[in-house]
Amino acid sequence: MQRETELKIIKATAEDTQAIWNLRVASILAGCPSHYPDELLASWTEGQPSAGFSEVVAGHFYIACRSERSQGSLVVGSVMLDCDNTELLPGEGQLEAVFVAPSEMGRGTGLALVTFAEALARNKGLKRLRLESTLNAIDFYRRCGFGEERMANYQSPRGISLDCCIMYKNL
């Protein structure tokens, strides 16, 4: 019987960029097909991360890792907390890039990442978190205490447009 390894959430570095990108692609392809058309999924997940993505990773991302002493660490989740977005209200932060490996879905990794980001936001003096949820993740965020505000259209930095739900949680 294989022993469960401990989940650790740590600050990401630029060196984690490719692992986070691969995690993002795997998470989208595993979690979103029942809610978005194949053509959209293909364009959403194609290519490689931009040079600017490494800077965002180093500045705002945290990763969840499971480690085996003999095998190094395995990135199984990510979360991004943006406290510098000028479009947000004072005291508000933006939660983004909550991705978990397909093998981690339903195992509490996503909840651990959201809980971690909420604590980080509180420590930074934020009073409320905002996020743009993919359609497949709305119920997950409801279970985390987020409420729906409205349906919207998300425009990704790569030019992809997809339906989403803007949600908020008071901290």
Automatic annotation (TrEMBL):
Domain N-acetyltransferase per the UniProt entry, residue ranges: 7-171
GO function terms (MF aspect): acyltransferase activity, transferring groups other than amino-acyl groups
Top-level taxon: Bacteria
PROSITE patterns: GNAT
Alphabetically ordered keywords of this record: Acyltransferase, Transferase
Pfam family, any one: Acetyltransf_1
InterPro entries in alphabetical order: Acyl_CoA_acyltransferase, Bact_Acetyltransf, GNAT_dom
PANTHER family noted in UniProt: AMINOALKYLPHOSPHONATE N-ACETYLTRANSFERASE-RELATED (PTHR43877:SF2), AMINOALKYLPHOSPHONATE N-ACETYLTRANSFERASE-RELATED-RELATED (PTHR43877)
Listed name of the protein: GNAT family N-acetyltransferase
Protein source organism: Shewanella cyperi
